Amino acid sequence: MPHHRATPAVALAGLVIAIAGCVTLARLELNHLRDGFETDARIIHRLLSQRTAQQDAVMAMLALLQPATQGAAAPPGPRISAVYPQILEVRQRDDNNPWPDAAMQAGEDESRRSHRAAIGGVDFASGRYQLVQAAAPASYAAQIDLRSMVPWEEWPMQPEASPVRVTLEYHGQHYVVQAGHDRVGQWQFDFRKRLAADSQPFDVVAVRSVGWTDLPWLKMLGWTLLTGAALAALHALERQRTERRRAEELLRLGQVARLNTLGELAAGVAHELNQPLTAILASTQAASRLLNDEPPDLATARDAMVRTVEQARRAAAVVGRMRRVVERPDVATRLQPVNLQEAVRNALYLLEPECARLGVRPAVMDGTVVVQADPVALEQIIHNLLANALQALAQVPARERALSIAMQPEGAHGVLTVCDSGTGIPADVLPRIFEPFFTTRSGGLGLGLSLCESLAADMNGTLTATNAAQRGALFRLSLPLAKTP
Length: 485
Ligand code: ADP
Fold this sequence. Notes:
Blueprint: H1 7-64, H2 77-83, E1 87-93, H3 102-114, E2 118-123, E3 128-133, E4 139-145, H4 146-149, E5 165-170, E6 173-178, E7 187-194, E8 203-210, H5 217-292, H6 298-326, E9 336-339, H7 340-358, E10 363-364, E11 370-373, H8 375-393, E12 403-410, E13 413-420, H9 448-458, E14 462-467, E15 473-480
Bound molecules: adenosine-5'-diphosphate.
């Protein structure tokens, strides 16, 4: 029977499950954050692209709505700004009014070439840029305010609170649309995509840093606690099962013990026969005397004979009872190779709770010694020796308690020694401890050791007791080694 304690393995498995669960939860959360980030970034890109396309359309419309006479109509700036707040100002160039700077001229040249609006200078530091539309006779330039260009009412994030940093980038210039958190975290999500309108080739850049604090700690804690609770329940269940198995095992051993004990008892009961035999002797002597009388006292002699029969019946009953009682399992016929180490382990398993109660950690010497024995009888001997040792150890202070078990081959025998640091056996007691009914314990039966000795003898072995060199008792069980095949 393997009785290994699985606690460390179970704890390790629990740790692995808890960690794996937490890692999975963290992964799921990171994926969730990344999905949200990417969705938001795509929405931002689309919104800003729509705005730039819209500005392209406005510029194209301006080109179409040429003033009837040059310089006659008021420039359309103020009216346009009322509808498109991001367009701060509209300039108009004709042959009389050249552009104020070369960048706008370059923009016009580009616009003429590409037949669409073009950038005529970017100043992201002040959040502005010029959009130029070449046309004839007049060309137009709109100054665009980036802040007003952002459609905040449709914005997918809270601009003040969001941890996402959003910028527009153009040839090394940056315009911060949304500041976000600029701390550096453990993980970083990035998004970069050029605006859809070719006229305004700005890059939309979104960055989000995710740190340890963003992980779902509460869920992870919950999972860990859940794992712990499940394992604790499992452990309790397992412990309960172990306890039950131990109880069954003890019961089995107890039953065998009782059978054997009754065998021992038979020896003690023998004196019961003395009384009826003495009575029979007395009655028959009396009867024979009465029959010899002249005249013989037949009535009294008959009474004596009736009493004799009664007593003989009583004796027969005692003998019958004893015979039934003495029916001990025939140990000698069940001899087989048994590993002493294993028998010790099984016996110790049953005494584990008692050892724990007394704070005794039995030291079992390593080694494999295989003897020829009946496993049940052998286990019973060891169990008795260990139980006696523990009883002796209970008499001494806790820190002085030691119990060592060793096994080694000696010639043709395997020898098991059980040595305790208990009270030891007084010199006058030592010669008597194997006698049936000899005990120094108030609740003791005094049958344990005599049973062990006869079980050992049945297995062609011996059991002896001495006191250990320093202190305590030392029991030696010697059994023939198993024949190696
Ligand atoms: P019981 O345990 O019922 O007394 P046993 O036959 O097992 O009967 O033991 C007989 C006696 O031997 C015990 O009462 C005790 O005095 C003595 N004895 C047995 N084992 C030890 C031990 N390890 N140390 C000291 N005394 C022992």
